[in-house]
Design brief:
By secondary structure, this protein is mainly α. The protein has 19 helices and no strands. The mean pLDDT is 84.
Amino acid sequence: MKKSVTKNYLYNVFYEILVIILPILTTPYVSRVLGAQGIGIYSYTISITTYFILFGSLGIALYAKREIAYVQDDTLKRSKIFWEIILLRFITLGISLLIFYFTYASHGAYQMYYKILILEILANALDVSPFFQGMEEFKKIIGRNLIVKLISVISIFLFIKTENDVNTYLLIYALSTLIGNVSLWLYLPKYIKKIPLKKLNFKKHLKPIIILFIPQIATQIYTVLDKTMIGSLIYDKKEVGFYEQSQKIVKLILTIVTSLGTVMLPRIANKFANGKKEEIEKDVFRSMNFVYFLSIPMAFGLIAVAKTFIPLFLGDGFEKSIAITAAISPILLLIGMSNVIGTQFLLPTKRQKEYTLSVIFGALTNLILNFALIPIYKSVGASIATVIAEMVVTLSQIFYIRKIFNVKKMLFLIKNYLISGIIMLGITLLVLLLPINSQIILLLIQGLVGVISYFGILLLLKDEFLKYIIKRAKSIIKK
């Protein structure tokens, strides 16, 4: 069942973008209609709901993807694993849903919003996309999302009209996830068989699931807890809104960088199961080169255009998001690197202990810095804490692989992209000095100058990876 990594990467980039394309495409409109306060309430309530989804899911999605990848060519084995894992998740998320209802959805100022978000918990219980990711069938996932997301985008423009429509916005968000996840079940009969309940063994999955669950709890501390802590430590929910919108912009770009990890996890897991160590090393180095190639110009580019782009994209009232976006942009490189080492190598090769420890170190760093920085610097402080936490995760993982890979060689791959990125940053910032009144034209010139300068310098440096990308692109076009 040999799949094309290039095609699956492109499929997965498209899929990951579709997952967040509703809020991204509608962000300029929603920001202006709901305002920072409405966006803050939306983000805060979702952050609370995410914890119940996290604890109810127990890290099953990541585990399922890996386990299915190990047996993707055996129909009986993959069917058995699928039913064991999905039924186990039904039970755990069912318990989580009950607790969520009685602690948040049944009372309180935001109970109406939490009742709507019950649909989000149900949607996660029915999510079978990890199965198709483990099977390396990324095209299937894209197909089910396309129509649902388009309908969602249309719905937002039709039904979100005033600052009081936060509940409607949440309903569209939750329903789109639920309908998309349910529709993917239509593809399952082709890939799995029915297994008698008495032949299923749930118990054997609990220990490895919990082992993978621990790092996911830690990860949530610096991906979701930031918003919760801003909303709790700072009375003004606008600060959550500023942070939320900046995160959306950075995460859309991050999707392009980290989507390769989703594709490579099942691929490397399959190679690990078959003892192909040399091929794994080659894949890891190529993935790291890819991360450098993409993340550095994206991070520097975001810093350069933030002052021009944010007011155009988010509208009036979100000026603070300029500083937040610039401050948080280094995570594009840091998360990209940890995605290669952690998601693409440590997890599929059953080095969960090292992965878990690295994430726990990052989570503790983030938690401590959040308490120290948020009361003083508010949402900007949370951004700084996130960057430092991601740096701790990446450095920890580099330490753990130092005896497995040539780390010096791996890090030295960054040289050409760092040189090109720094020069590109300088040139694009100089564009801001031009006497141009139109912000749109200024942004377009910045983008054009940035792309030409970055790739132009790489060509002058005769970068080998750029040559490889051009060669691959030509071969795909010919096909």
